[in-house]
Amino acid sequence: MSWSIARVEHFNEQESRAAQCIRAASESKRTLSIEGGGTRAFLGRSVASGDVLSSQPFSGVISYEPSELVLRVGAGTKVSDIQAMLAEKDQCLAFEPHVLNGCEKGMGVGSTIGGAIASAMAGSARPWQGGVKDHVLGLGLINGKGDILKFGGQVMKNVAGYDVSRAMVGSLGCMGLITEVSLKVLPTQSQQRFVQMPCSLEVALALAVKLDRSMTMRIGFAWCDDLAHIRFSGPEDAVSEVLDHFELRRYVEESDVFWDLLSQMKHPIFDVAEPGKLWRVVTPKYTRLTDVFPAAPILVNWAGGESFIQISEDDLSKSAGNLRDLDAHVYSLNVDQCYVLGGLSPTIERLHVALKNAFDPYGVLNVGRMSEAF
Question: Are 58 and 179 contacting, i.e. CB atoms less than 8 angstroms apart?
Answer without folding.
Answer: yes
